[in-house]
Each structure stands twice: as C-alpha cells, then as structure tokens.
UniProtKB/TrEMBL annotation:
Keywords: Membrane, Transmembrane, Transmembrane helix
GO cellular component, one term: lysosomal membrane
GO molecular function, one term: NAADP-sensitive calcium-release channel activity
Pfam families for the chain: MCLN_ECD
Protein name per UniProt: Mucolipin extracytosolic domain-containing protein
TM region positions: 46-63, 329-350, 362-382, 394-420, 466-492
Record-annotated Mucolipin extracytosolic domain positions: 83-256
Length: 537
C-alpha cells in the first residue's frame, strides 16, 4: 500500500546519491494530495481511508442500533418495577421522565412506612397474578406459593454499624393479613428477627432485596435477564423524613430450554454484522501495515540523511530535524487501528448477548474514538488542509486562553456551589453547578436560573443576579469572541501563505538541502518519471 520502496540492504554514506536523496526528502515531506498530483498515480490510500471511514461509521451505527432496543427495554423494566413495587409512584418521582422528576419519594409517618412495606411485599408475592409483562421469580422451582424465593431484608441501626440481613419468611395467610391491615407487617418482620423501631432507637437504613426474571423476545432471538431489585428506606439523617430509593440492575441469565425452541441460530442481520466486522478488521490491518511501513521508511530516510550530512557535508542534524522524520500522526493512526480492531473483536464476541456491562461500554468507547481519528485521518488525504494547518497555528494561543478560562471557571464553579447552592436546586452539587454553567454558555434560559433561587435571602438573590450576568458576559461575549478572533487570524495567515507546504524563512540545514532541488528547471513532463519510486531511496 505504501508508495515508498524499502530496501532490505542499508546504503553506505558513500553510496547515497545526493540528488536522489534530495528528491526523496522533497517527496517525503509533501502532503498526500501533492504526491498523487506529482506522480499522477491512483490514490489507493485515499480509497482505503474512505472505505475505512464508511465501514467504521456503518459498524458504529449497527452497534448503536443493536444496543438501543436493549436500553429502551431496560428503561421500561425499570419504570414498570417502580410502578409495581412502590406505592403511589408517579411521573413527578420518575427520574427517567423528561423533564426528570424532582419530587423526592419520601415518607413522614410510621403508618406510611408500614403501608409502603406492605405494598412492596404484597406486590412481590402476587407477581403472577398482577403482572402484565413476562416477569417471573428468579430460580423459582414451581408455581405454588411455597416455591417463591424469599425476600432478603437488611437493616442498619447506625450509620457506621454493619447491616444485619435476614430472609423474610412469608405465608399466604400473612399476605391476606397485611392486605387487610398493613400495620401487621411490623409483627411479621419482628417474627423474622427484623426490627425497625426499638423504643427510641430508629433504624438508619432498611433494604428489601429480591430477584426477578425478565424475558425480552424479538423475531430473531430471545434473551433472559436477572432483575436485581433493591428497595432502600433511608433514615440516616433522622430528620423525620424517610427517603425511598429503588434500584434495578439487569444481568444476563440463561433461558430455559423450552423458551429457546423455534429460535434461529443466525439470522440475516447476524451474517451482515459478521461480514461488516471482517471488512472493518481487514481495512484496519491494511491501514496498520501502510502506517508501519511509512513510519519505517521515514526512520530509514532519517538515518540515511544523517549519515550523508555527516560524511558528505560535515554537518550534524539537530534533534528537531530528526524529529521531522518521526511523524506522530502515523503513531496515532497505528494506535487507532489497534483500538478499532480490539473494539471490533470484542463486539464480535458479544454477539447475541443482551445486557449492559463495562465491556459493552468499553467497546462503544473504542469504536466511538476510532471514528473520530479515522475521520481526521481522511482529511489529511483530501484538500481540507487549510483548516488543519490553521488549527495547529492558533492552538498554542487557544491553550493559553483555555487555561485562563479554566481557572476562572473553577472560581465561578466553587463560588456558585458554595454561595448559591443552599438556595437553588441548580447549584446543590458541584456536578449540577457545572452543568448549569455549561447550559448558560450554550444559551440556556437565564430566567429559570433566577427563578430557582430562593428570594428569602436578599443578599444571595443579589449575588446570584450579578454572578450570572458577569459569568455570561465574561465567557460568552469575551472569551468565545477571543477564540473566534484567534482562529480567523490564523486562517487568514494560512490562506495568504502561498508557500505553506514549503519551509520557513529561517531554514535549517535540512531545509536548505531540500531547497537545492530546482523543480522549475526540470521538464514538467518528466516530473512523474523523476519522482517514480524506482528513482527514490
């Protein structure tokens, strides 16, 4: 794939032709588009990069389409479990709704606590009777009441104490009793050595844990999940308010054999995914080989040039001159090819699995980062280099500006969290404060930010008003305008620089050596032959 010939026999300094070395160096430092124009050759690398960008993008789209139905299903299961096991659950309490609910799901009376625990227990033991979805008890041995797996209840008396866990042994008579009178659940809990209230000693945390089985069926496959469900009654603050939090976690589970009957082994979509993965790996291997070969050629050319300068011109190449041969972009492309190949192999091994874990998240990160580098690499082979060159010219100034902005942003972040945090839900935590500030930068409604601040404290209200005005004025009208001005200045300097691919005025020995090649004196019709691979080192 590389246009550079690589000789296995290293040339001696006396054997190196100066004119041939000069042409090789000139051609080496050209951009890919100029190389194809000079040689009038077929742009094979460009075609490879275009195909690679298309296939990696297609793979990422397919991977996302495969994951999204699962996440939609997981979100639905989470919402169903909340509505089924939490008494009086509504959209106002639902963090998955849009806009997310801000109302705390909390209790304030002992009778309410026992009603909610009774509702939780009844809902669990009447799952088969009331459920609309394909829910079942995990590892259930039958349909009878006695075959239902027991709940686990963990109670923590003090914040720093260890929690004590017991299984909740419930009979069908107990279910009937608490359906009639929810307060009887307290006696049932005490019968199972579970005490929530012992005189003046109230529990800190009480957690009810059980596992369900859920089935997601499509036209091509069926996936079973273990639904780990934990309902936490949090009383650690002992402020008279108990906060309830239900967490749901889906884990892979083996489906029973009778559920898998009639399912196809591999569908047409599966074969398409396999073919796409193989194509992506093949393109990455070709790109990997090409980059390694080009990097090796650059290092070889650097050694030849250094030897030639030392023996024929009595000059030593500086470290900066040698560094020009070591093109870091090839290193980035090599690492990216390895990343995409690794992500593709992991994706292939996860085929027909239907659960979210760190491996899935890591795979999406690998493929997502890969498409960015592939896209930027493609720009190198197209004629959009002005943008890239402009970015390199103004990057130093922008980095200096970003450091200053980061320091100022940290000051606004900490000040907003500390001063406004107790009086506005948008500034309650550092994370929320940061999100609020970024939202303001992107045009969020300032009025809602003002409204959320409590008006009871005049000093805080005045500070928040000045705080928001100064932040928006500084970061939007000043800093962003400076970034745009820096980029425009670098862009115009790049466009006006006719010799942007040539060497700067303060030339090094290497640059002066290359400039000795006079292309104007050469016959333009013979340039293609002069820069043929056979005539270069």
């Amino acid at each position: 794939m590389s246009a550079h010939p690589i000789s296995e026999e290293p040339l001696l300094p006396a054997e190196v032709d100066g004119e041939r070395l000069r042409k090789s160096l000139y051609f080496f430092f050209l951009n890919p588009a100029d190389k194809w124009t000079l040689r009038n050759t077929f742009p094979g690398k460009l075609i490879l990069k275009i195909l690679m960008a298309v296939f990696v993008a297609a793979q990422l789209v397919v991977f996302s389409q495969e994951r999204m139905p699962y996440f939609e299903y997981a979100t639905t299961v989470d919402r169903v479990v909340h509505h089924k096991f939490l008494k009086d659950w509504s959209v106002e309490n639902d963090p998955m709704a849009f806009p997310p609910g801000e109302k705390l799901y909390s209790l304030y009376q002992r009778s309410d606590l026992f009603e909610h625990i009774s509702h939780l227990v009844i809902s669990y033991y009447t799952l088969h009777e009331e459920s609309l979805g394909s829910f079942d008890y995990f590892n259930s041995t039958g349909e009878l009441f006695d075959s239902i797996p027991e709940m686990e209840v963990c109670v923590q008396v003090r914040r720093r104490h260890h929690k004590r866990c017991n299984t909740l042994n419930i009979t069908d008579e107990d279910i009937a009793a608490i359906e009639e009178d929810p307060s009887k659940i307290e006696a049932i809990l005490e019968r199972n050595n579970i005490t929530l209230f012992d005189g003046r000693r109230y529990f800190a945390k009480a957690e009810f844990i059980f596992n369900l089985e859920s089935i997601r069926e499509t036209d091509q496959e069926m996936n079973c999940h273990q639904v780990e469900t934990s309902t936490l009654f949090d009383n650690t603050l002992r402020s008279g308010m108990i906060v309830i939090d239900l967490s749901v976690k889906l884990l892979p589970a083996t489906c029973r054999q009778e559920l898998l009957e009639g399912m196809q082994n591999l569908s047409r979509d599966d074969w398409f995914n396999i073919l796409l993965d193989i194509t992506v790996i093949s393109c990455c291997l070709c790109s990997l080989y090409s980059s390694i070969r080009s990097l090796h050629y650059g290092l070889r050319l650097m050694r030849l040039t250094s030897s030639y300068f030392s023996h024929n011109r009595s000059q030593r190449m500086t470290f900066g001159e040698k560094l020009k041969f070591f093109q870091m972009w090839y290193i980035i492309v090599i690492l990216n090819d390895i990343v995409v190949i690794t992500g593709t192999c992991i994706k292939f091994s996860l085929s027909n699995t239907d659960f979210d874990n760190y491996v899935y998240t890591g795979t999406s990160l690998l493929l997502g980062l890969g498409i960015f580098v592939v896209s930027i690499d493609l720009l190198r082979y197209l004629t959009f280099l002005n943008v890239l060159i402009s970015m390199t010219k103004f990057m130093t100034n922008v980095l200096q500006l970003i450091i200053c902005a980061a320091i100022m942003y940290s000051a606004f972040l900490l000040a907003g969290w500390t001063i406004i945090g107790p009086y506005s839900p948008k500034f309650h935590t550092v994370e929320r404060t940061s999100k609020t500030l970024f939202s303001l930068l992107n045009g969020d409604d300032m009025f809602t930010t003002f409204v959320t601040v409590e008006s009871s404290n005049t000093a805080v209200l005045l500070f928040s008003t000045v705080y928001v005005y100064v932040f928006v004025s500084l970061f939007i009208y000043v800093l962003l305008s400076l970034v745009i001005a820096i980029f425009e200045n670098a862009w115009y300097r790049t466009v006006e620089d006719r010799d942007r691919y040539r060497l700067p005025e303060q030339k090094t020995n290497l640059q002066r050596f290359i400039d000795e090649l006079d292309l104007n004196a050469m016959n333009t019709q013979n340039l293609t032959a002069l820069f043929d691979s056979a005539n270069l080192l």
